[in-house]
Amino acid sequence: MTHPQHTTVGIIGGGPAGLLLARLLHRSGIDCAVLESRDRSYVERRQRAGILEQGTVDVLRACGAGERMDREGLVHDGIELRWNRRAHRLDFPALTGGRRVRVYAQTEVVKDLIALQLADGPPLLFGAQALAVTGADTGRPAIRYHHQGREETLTCDYVVGCDGFHGVAREAVESVRRTHTRSYPYSWLGVLAEAPPSHDELIYAHSARGFALFSMRTPTVSRLYLQVPNGTDPADWPDDRIWDELEARGAIDGPWKLARGPLSAKAVLPMRSSVTEPMRYGRVLLAGDAAHIVPPTGAKGLNLAVADVTVLARALDQVHRTGATELLDAYSDTCLRRVWRAEHFSAFMTTTLHTAPDQSPFDTRLQHSQLDRIADSPHAAAELAENYTGLPLR
């Protein structure tokens, strides 16, 4: 394989952020290369998010990656909140002027983007382990990486780190970065079930036993989550225990039946928030999880990454076409305004719906009051719906 020696934009990380950025740049005529440390099979199997905001759907369609999403994705016009054995549905289009979300797993988004990239896009190297980024504050940063038994160097006009919280791109901005973090005193036990969804839309259930989320991947596969203590071993949760707990936490005073089936995967997911500021140092820029992490309760992680690279692609397109750098200079501030809004919403959803280990009856009544407010007030409901479906990309 011929290794590129120089490119305009070097992208570290072949997840949805890096792949989408490469697609957007390619369509603008900007050359780039993507270095992904894992092999293709691993990347296409990683289980992550499954809810696409309206803006994410629009971007994927516009870049040519929407055909299978439109055919196989599930359009959802709302979610259901459950608490105190009560159920309340939020009607997204009615509350937001027509916005909705789509259930389409991140694994499928990645498969679609990889197929496009390999068919007609710029270089995509799997098994290319980035070792370091140098020259961030120069006009010619470089990525040192290991691929097929050799160490290579890729010089770039710009380097974009889409390589996550532990990636090497963050190390390149270490001298200027400030990272704000928050950890939560619980985790999620996530399972995939060979069972049809138990409801047409997602259910977010608050209970004294802890939070539960009833989601889906397809009409025959459910994705389900239970709040569990930090440090939980999935092996301590046999299938019957999981199903019984889901049924107890989702219980309401009304008709509802939990569809059960074989569980094909179990994993414990930590709950934390993190924001790194700024998202740029010299010619190195961060996007997606390299810059921020949200708890999954608000379904914001993948969508924030898409927003980041959409803003960045526009900025790099302006540089490419006109030489102007106004949008690129504003990249960090533009993204961080949206990031902090999403962090606030994700924290709100998390603290409102979960039961803390030391939670008092007073705390629980406050949560019930907030949920009652959402059910009774169109203004409170609209605030949740607008944030959930995604603020417009600017």
Description:
- Helix content is 37%, strand content 29%.
- It is of the alpha+beta class and 394 residues long.
- The model has no long low-confidence stretch (mean pLDDT 95).
- The strands form three sheets. Strands 1, 2, 8, 9, 10, 11, 17 and 18 form an eight-stranded mixed β-sheet that branches. Strands 6-5-13-14-15-12-16-19 form an eight-stranded mixed β-sheet.
- The two termini are 39 Å apart.
Q: Could you name the key traits of this structure?
A:
394 residues; alpha+beta; eight-stranded mixed sheet; 19 strands; 37% helix
Count of beta strands: 19
Overall mean pLDDT score? 95
Oligomer: single chain
Percent of residues in β-strands: 25-35%
Number of helices: 13
Quick structural overview:
The chain is of the alpha+beta class and 394 residues long.
Per-chain topology:
Blueprint: E1 6-12, H1 16-27, E2 32-36, H2 40-45, E3 51-52, H3 54-62, H4 67-72, E4 74-76, E5 78-83, E6 86-91, H5 92-96, E7 101-103, H6 106-120, E8 124-126, E9 129-134, E10 142-147, E11 150-161, H7 168-172, E12 178-193, E13 202-205, E14 212-218, E15 221-228, H8 239-249, E16 263-277, E17 280-281, E18 284-286, E19 292-293, H9 301-322, H10 326-329, H11 331-353, H12 361-376, H13 378-389
Helix pairs in contact: 1-6, 1-9, 9-11, 12-13
